[in-house]
Every structure is written in C-alpha cells, then in structure tokens.
Write a sequence for this structure.
C-alpha cells in the first residue's frame, strides 16, 4: 500500500511560501495515515512509502525537503535506507528524522552516525512531531539559501577576477605608454636645455623643470598605475634619505603655474631635517596636498608649507590653506576612493577623488600618520608625520 501523490519533477524553489514536501516511510499503513494526517493539517505536502526500496525510488523521482523514516521495517530497514540516501549526491543533503521505539538506543546512535539529524520516539506526540519537523525544515531552508548565496558569490567572484585581470592588463598597457611618452619628454627637455646658450635664464629653467616633472611622472606610472597593488595595500616603499627642503621646493614648483594664475602667495618654511622614506611617494604626497590647496584657495590668498624635525624622531610636514574648509561629515570620508566632497574647487578644477586615498596609502606604507584640521570658512591644514633620517 502506498499513499503516493503524483507530481511533476521538482524544479528550483522560487517560491518561499510553497508547501514543503515531507516523505513518510513506514511499513504500517496505520502509522502512515496518522503521520500524514498531522503533517497535512500543519500545511505540508506529503509523499508516503511502505518500504525502503519504494522510498529510494520516490526520492530519485522527486526530492523531498525532509524524510520521516521508520527504523524497524522488513527487508531493507531504515538504517540501510539512510545509508543509501546519504551515499548519493542528489539526496545526501535531505534531513532525515528517524521514528523509533524508546528501547532502540543503539539504532538511534547508528542513525546519527549515518547522517540523520533527529529522532522521534513511538508513540509520538503530535505537537512534538510538528515542532521537530518545522525546526528541521527551517534549518534546511536556511542551508539551501546559504548554498544558493554561496554559489552566486562564487560566480560573482569569478566574474570580478576576470574583470580585475582585464583591468590589470589594460593598466599595464597604459603604464607602458605613459612611461614611453614621458621618456620622450625627458629626452627632448634635456636636449633643449643643453642647447640653451644661457642655461640660467627662465626658458632654460622651465625646460629643466619639465624634465624633472616628466621623470617624476615616469616613476609614478610604475607605482600608481599598479592599481592591484594599491588595492591590496602592498605598494613597495623604498627607504632612502629625502631632504625636507628639496621635497617642499619640488612640490611647490610643480604647481607654480597654477598658483600664479590665482595669484596665490605660497610660503615655505623648512629646517634641515631629512625623512626616511620613498622619494617618489613623498613627492606624490606633497603634490597631492598642494594640488588640493591650490584648487580650494581663493584668489590672492596664502598657502603655507612647513617641514620640522620633532623630538619623537619624526618629521612633521604640513600644508595649510585659506580655503572654504571641510565639514565634519567631509572629514569622515576624506580618504575613501572616488569620493567627492561638498566643498567646491574655486576654479572648478576636475577631480576623480583619488588623491587623498593615495596619500593615505603611501603615508601608511612608510609607517607615518596623516591628520586633518579644518573648520568651515577657516581653511584646512593637512599634517604628515614621517620617520626622520637620523
């Protein structure tokens, strides 16, 4: 005797509100009827089988959400049914609850070893039956959802890895082209500077400045376009002696044309301190900070650059402007990549929101600290603390 309910093959569960399918396996028709009645009243869909082989055949045709399995059955007992179902990949994850007599402790332990999740003793109480079935169906639903989410995350991860590989190949090409282009600028600027009859005049100085800046851009292309290393925080920093005064001079010279256009008064104050750090990174840090100061400074205002050795064995670098300042909310997101702040550049200069992110990364890479002090309408001061060369 069976209480088989004909159904179409199961499809992926796209409706979380559907009735859960419970397979009942027992060789006694009365037990099947009683169990089916209680579970149907609880809102579950029922399949029933009166033997182990029939149960396995039903599972292969339509996968249930849970199985209630009697241990003591003639021929193939419940333990053997459990073993076979758990040995097949398609049915291994189905939770199995054994139905057993109180005296069959050894069988229960063997059932747990084979993969059962729970057991109900005969004679069972309807409330206990429904509660245990509901609990394990909820656990099964949670596991299924987690499995689905993990599969989706795996697909997304593979897709992102492919995109990241494509991005790195593209950036490698761009980096190569940038280094080649600026290499030509360096060569031409040196050639023209050598041909100048009066090397100390303004034209000669500008040619040399162009060459220095182009060399700087070549070095930056190697570090900054390796975005994969930046994202992992693994940009390799050298340890070399960086003279504070020369660093400030380089950084301000890189922005002298923009400063002149806005009639900014840039003032430098530096002692003879030296920094233990990466020259290219130090230049990038200062040029980014000065670039921001120039962008946000009103015409005719001041920018102060300072380098001072401190007794704690660090060099303090600061860039201060008289711009519109930063709100408390803006200061919380200063170093996030691709973040636009509420303050607007005075000359509407373009920004992709990467400068301060790169600054923070490089400062951290050299074992330093960065701090910002600002109030709306009162300007902004960025302070960098880097190890001193002693």
């Amino acid at each position: 005797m069976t209480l088989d309910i004909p159904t179409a093959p199961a499809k992926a569960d796209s409706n979380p509100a559907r009735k859960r399918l419970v397979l009942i396996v027992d060789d006694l028709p009365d037990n099947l009827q009683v169990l089916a009645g209680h579970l149907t009243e609880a809102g579950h869909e029922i399949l029933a089988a009166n033997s182990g082989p029939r149960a396995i055949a039903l599972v292969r045709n339509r996968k249930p959400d849970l199985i209630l399995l009697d241990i003591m059955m003639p021929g193939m007992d419940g333990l053997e049914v459990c073993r076979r179902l758990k040995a097949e990949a398609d049915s291994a994850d189905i939770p199995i609850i054994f139905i057993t007599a109180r005296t069959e402790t050894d069988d229960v332990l063997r059932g747990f070893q084979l993969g059962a999740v729970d057991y109900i003793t005969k004679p069972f109480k309807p409330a206990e039956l429904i509660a245990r079935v509901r609990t394990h169906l909820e656990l099964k639903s949670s596991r299924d959802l987690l499995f689905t989410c993990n599969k989706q995350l795996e697909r997304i991860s593979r897709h992102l890895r492919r995109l990241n590989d494509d991005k790195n190949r593209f950036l490698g090409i761009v980096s190569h082209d940038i280094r080649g282009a600026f290499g030509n600028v360096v060569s031409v600027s040196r050639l023209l500077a050598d041909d100048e009859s009066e090397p100390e005049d303004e034209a000669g100085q500008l040619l040399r400045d162009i060459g220095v800046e182009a060399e700087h851009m070549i070095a930056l292309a190697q570090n900054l376009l390796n975005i994969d290393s930046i994202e992992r925080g693994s940009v390799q920093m050298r340890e070399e002696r960086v003279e504070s005064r020369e660093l400030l001079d380089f950084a301000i010279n890189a922005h002298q044309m923009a400063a002149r256009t806005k009639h900014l008064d840039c003032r430098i104050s530096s002692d003879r301190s030296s920094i233990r750090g990466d020259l290219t990174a130090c230049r990038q840090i200062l040029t980014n900070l000065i670039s921001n100061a120039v962008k946000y400074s009103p015409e005719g205002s001041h920018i102060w650059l300072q380098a001072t050795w401190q007794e704690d064995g660090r060099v303090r670098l600061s860039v201060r402007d008289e711009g519109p300042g930063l709100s408390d909310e803006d200061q919380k997101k200063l170093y996030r990549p691709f973040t636009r702040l509420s303050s607007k550049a005075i000359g509407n200069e373009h920004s992709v929101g990467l400068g301060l992110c790169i600054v923070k990364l490089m400062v951290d890479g050299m074992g330093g600290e960065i701090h910002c002090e600002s109030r709306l309408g009162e300007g902004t001061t960025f302070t960098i603390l880097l190890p001193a060369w002693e």
Observations:
- The longest helix spans residues 126-195.
